[in-house]
Amino acid sequence: MDDNIFGLLEKMYFEMQKGFKEVRGDIREIRGDITEIRGDITEIRGEIKEVKSELKQDIVRLENKMDNHFKALYDGYKQNTEKLCQVESIITDLNNKVELHEVEIKVIKGGK
After folding, report:
1. Which whole number is the average pLDDT over 45-71?
2. What pTM does this model have?
């Protein structure tokens, strides 16, 4: 009976050692996967930094472009406003001349 118990204990010991080896192998595999994931994360961080840098440059370029366009639009608006003022002045002068001519016509007609 002692031999049976010893045999059973020995069998259990070998099976447990085999299980431990499998667990150790799994742990090594998981560690390898974690190392690979860390490398991927580092690579992704680098790509994110690169994209951020490119995005900042694009934003600066856009702001410069928009600034130039806004300046051109403002200049156009200013020129239109100045031209409108000139046209209004000409119309006022013409209205004054028409009124003066109307008075002269009334004087001429009244003198006959």
Report:
1. 92
2. 0.50
C-alpha span between 63 and 59 (Å, rounded)? 6
Q: Which residues of 51-83 are buried (b: 16+ CB within 10 A; e: fewer)?
A: eeeeeeeeeeeeeeeeeeeeeeeeeeeeeeeee
* For the chain, the helix, strand and coil percentages under 3-state DSSP, each to the nearest 5: 95, 0, 5
Q: How far is Cα 41 from Cα 34, in angstroms, rounded to an integer?
A: 10
Per the listing, tokens 């490398």 go with 39
Q: Token digits for 60?
A: 């600066």
d(CA 28, CA 56): 42
Q: Is the dihedral of CA 26, 29, 31, 36 positive or negative?
A: negative
HSE at residue 22, side-chain half, CA atoms within 13 A, is 6
| Per-residue pLDDT, 112 | 57
Distance CA 96, CA 102 (A): 10
